[in-house]
Design a protein that fits this description.
The complex is a heterodimer of chains A (218) and B (578). By secondary structure, chain A is mainly beta. Chain A contains 1 helix and 17 strands. Chain A has 2 domains: 106 residues, Sandwich (Immunoglobulin-like); 86 residues, Cupredoxins -  blue copper proteins (Immunoglobulin-like, Sandwich). Chain A has a 5-stranded mixed β-sheet with strand order 6-12-11-8-9. Classes of the chains: A mainly beta (218), B alpha+beta (578).
Chain lengths: 218, 578
């Protein structure tokens, strides 16, 4: 996918700086993500692209649930090296898969907690589907660093607990017309609060297959 | 021969034929007009309906192709193979191509192409010359890429016309596109013709892609769409001639991505649509011909039926005109002609009877009297009438019979009687009877009149004058003169038809008749030529000169009868008055 390939070509920022201690837990970076027409963009992920910690560090596992034939949450940002469990809370089978280059996997027909954890060891967008239910669609965004956040309904975000230092911030949205690299903004985190604005022109949402029996009907 | 002189038979015959022929021609003409127009209208309507059916068939075909494509694109194995293109290391072009071939067989389509999400061809069945050509600008893939949804179009690929559907392969987002194509060729046109019974062609003004027409007719098809406005539907079906046959053709524009507009040309045979009309017309003509023959025969029969009796009647009339009143028209019918014939026969019967009566009457009465009687001015049933009765006799007839030879006697008698009749009829009287040498005449019967005494006396005076002329002729011949006596009396008599059936005749009876005869006899003894009774004398005007008067005894009468002499000399005045 076009949106899935950009992370292959991440170039580390030239502004890499030594990490500095955090002052008193105050929000260090906040800002907004707006669309082309100035509206706040919800569910955009703002994350630190650089510096990134060394890969291979295993994190605690995350959960992408299946409730009422829907992936919950629909968007799950994780740091690379995180394992994700796919518990099925429906009374029916699901067949979870992804053909995304960042992670191709398949959990053939299963119920409950039977499926094994899946390790996401490559940065990128992993689009998750269900072979049985066409409308079921989820995204696991595998990020290079643990510093990320998701915008609220007004497009606002707060990236807290970021140690002082120089960072490259990137904004991503599923429907963004521009690649994440093109949104990169260098920030220097010090004692003062920093405000960052991202502008993401959005493509119209694609019509999805209809969802039926969402409220617990098989 | 002019119409007015034509025979009734010819007129009836010609009228019947003309009428029937007219009805036949009118029926045929009207049928041609109404049914022909109706057939054309029906054909146009059918063609439009066919056009609609046709469009929905094409749409349904596209929809079926699309749903097949969507089903196929959701095949998990396909998704899995498709996804291999993300990683050049695992990309399996051969498997993809063989999968494409398998799908082509499975769905019975002519084209299966697979492209990645950027529109680059991954695999094609049948195989393409360029393995990784870009299809991004090719319709309908272009639309599908833009909309991320299924798109359909009609396109030209390698000189053939294809209906192509492009659908995204979702996993769950777009990972590529699957394109399925069905060729539109002669076999498709043939199938559509089976369903719609119309000739079908797919063509642009430059090229016929598919058609139910044979190859040699196709250049004609190109002309039919050469000058059409591209986008607008041809609203009116147009008549065209293909070979020997007339067609109505409707061009439906078909949405397609070609350099020139694509049409589906639907054609219905006008001649075939009219075939039932022609069959109908033949039938009408056959029925009409039968009706014509029947009408002619009926006309002949009818005219014979009418003119036969008419001829019989005409013959009968000719016969009657020649004087044969005994002839009757023999027409045994109960219609108007029969009635006419019976009326004619009754009329001739009446004429015959009248003629007979006239004949019988004419011997005894004057022509005027006979006419009066026959014209119903005189009742023949018997009636009481006041009349004057005149008797005339030849004085000394016995001596004359000896003097004359019989032939001379009869001739002289007849001459006298001719004069008597003339004198009586001159005064409107009726010579009732010849009594040997005498005559009895009536005045006031059968036709009543008021002045019968004057008439009778004038007739007597006239007779005397005529007798003078006759006596002069007799003198020239050396014969002795005739002397006569005339007696006149007036009185009431019963007049009517008297006698047995075979010999019935008009007559009067009564005492007055006898007395008149007696008065005449008295002329000999009294020595007068004309004697009248008192009843006469009282009713004469002053213009008559009366002479001597006497009371004389009469046979059979107790009382003597008064008689008056009429002086012949006064006649000159009376004659001129008459």
């Amino acid at each position: 996918m076009v949106t899935g390939r950009w992370l292959h070509s991440i170039v580390l920022s030239a502004f890499l700086a030594p990490l500095t201690p955090v002052h008193g837990g105050a929000p260090s970076v906040s800002g907004t993500v707006t669309s082309g027409d100035g509206e706040g963009v919800a569910d955009a992920v703002v994350f630190v692209q650089a510096p990134a910690p060394a890969p291979g560090h295993t994190r605690v596992s995350q959960v992408l649930d299946q409730i009422h034939k829907t992936f919950v949450p629909g968007l799950l940002p994780i740091v690379v090296g995180t394992s994700v469990r796919f518990p099925n809370h429906d009374q029916i089978h699901h067949h979870v898969y992804s053909f995304s280059p960042a992670k191709t996997f398949e959990l053939p027909l299963y119920k409950g907690e039977d499926a094994p954890e899946v390790l996401f060891d490559k940065v990128g967008v992993v689009k998750i589907g269900c072979n049985i239910h066409d409308w079921m669609s989820g995204i696991i965004l595998v990020l290079p660093s643990p510093h990320f956040t998701v915008t609220d309904a007004q497009g606002r975000f707060v990236l807290g607990a970021l140690p002082a230092g120089d960072y490259t911030l990137v904004a991503w949205h599923e429907l963004s017309k521009i690649k994440p690299d093109a949104t990169a903004q260098p920030v220097r985190v010090g004692g003062e609060a920093i405000h960052v604005s991202f502008r993401l022109p959005l493509a119209p949402a694609r019509a999805r297959p209809a969802m039926h029996g969402v409220r617990g009907e098989p | 021969m002019s119409w007015s002189r034509a025979s009734l038979r010819s007129k009836i015959f010609v009228s019947f034929s003309t009428l029937t022929l007219g009805v036949l021609v009118a029926t045929l003409g009207l049928t041609q007009l109404v049914v022909g127009r109706d057939a054309a209208r029906t054909l146009n309507r059918e063609l439009r309906t066919t056009g609609q059916v046709f469009e929905s068939l094409l749409q349904e075909r596209a929809a079926r192709l699309q749903s097949n494509s969507i089903l196929l694109a959701n095949d998990f194995a396909l998704k899995r193979v498709f996804a291999t293109h993300f990683d050049p290391a695992s990309y399996d072009a051969e498997t993809l191509a063989s999968a494409g071939m398998s799908y082509r067989e499975r769905l019975g389509v002519e084209l299966v192409w697979m492209a990645d999400e950027a529109g680059t061809l991954l695999a094609a069945s049948p195989a393409r010359a360029q393995p990784r050509e870009s299809l991004a600008t090719l319709s309908p893939l272009k639309e599908a890429m833009e909309s991320q949804a299924a798109a359909s179009d009609v396109v030209q690929i390698d000189g053939k016309l294809f209906q192509v559907v492009a659908v995204p392969v979702l996993a769950p987002d777009v990972i590529g596109f699957l394109m399925l194509g069905q060729v539109i060729d002669d076999s498709v046109a043939a199938r559509l013709k089976q369903d719609t019974h119309s000739d079908v062609s797919f063509l642009t003004p430059a090229h016929v892609f598919a058609s139910t027409w044979p190859a040699d007719s196709r250049s004609r098809l190109l002309e039919l769409v050469a000058h059409l406005p591209g986008a607008a539907a041809e609203t009116l079906p147009r008549p065209v001639t293909m070979g020997e046959e007339r067609f109505v053709s409707l061009a439906l524009p078909i949405a397609a991505h070609l350099s020139t507009p694509l049409y589906a040309l639907i054609q219905g045979s006008y001649d075939k649509a009219l075939a039932p009309l022609h069959a109908l017309q033949w039938r009408i003509a056959a029925i009409g011909a039968a009706a014509l023959v029947t009408a002619l025969l009926t006309g002949l029969l009818l005219s014979a039926n009418i003119t036969g009796p008419v001829r019989t009647l005409v013959d009968a009339m000719s016969e009657v005109a020649r004087g044969n009143l005994r002839h009757r028209a023999r027409v045994e019918r109960h219609d108007e002609l029969g009635f006419l014939a019976r009326s004619f026969n009754v009329m001739v019967g009446g004429l015959q009877e009248k003629e007979h009566i006239k004949d019988t009457f004419g011997r005894f009465v004057s022509h005027d009297v006979a006419e009066a009687v026959l014209n119903n001015r005189v009742p023949l049933t018997g009636e009481r009438l006041e009349v004057s009765i005149l008797f005339q006799d030849i004085r000394g007839f016995s001596a004359l019979s000896e003097w004359f030879d019989p032939a001379t006697l009869l001739r002289v008698l007849n001459q006298l009687f001719t004069e008597v009749v003339a004198a009586v009829e001159a005064e409107g009287g009726m010579v009732k009877q010849f009594t040997g040498d005498g005559v009895m005449a009536l005045f006031g019967a059968p036709r009543p009149c008021q002045d019968h005494p004057q008439r009778a006396v004038r007739a007597a005076l006239g007779l005397v004058a005529r007798l003078a002329g006759l006596n002069e002729e007799l003198a020239v011949q050396g014969l002795p003169p005739l002397r006569i006596g005339v007696g006149i009396h007036a009185g009431e008599v019963v007049a009517g038809l008297i006698g047995p059936d075979q010999r019935v005749e008009y007559g009067v009876v009564g005492d007055a008749v006898n007395l008149a005869s007696r008065v005449e006899e008295l002329t000999k003894t009294f020595g007068a030529t004309i004697l009248i009774s008192r009843q006469i004398a009282d009713r004469l005007g002053p213009e008559f000169a009366l002479g001597r008067t006497a009371l004389l005894p009469v046979k059979g009468k107790a009382q003597p009868v008064e008689v008056i002499e009429v002086v012949a000399g006064s006649h000159a005045h009376a004659d001129s008055a008459a």
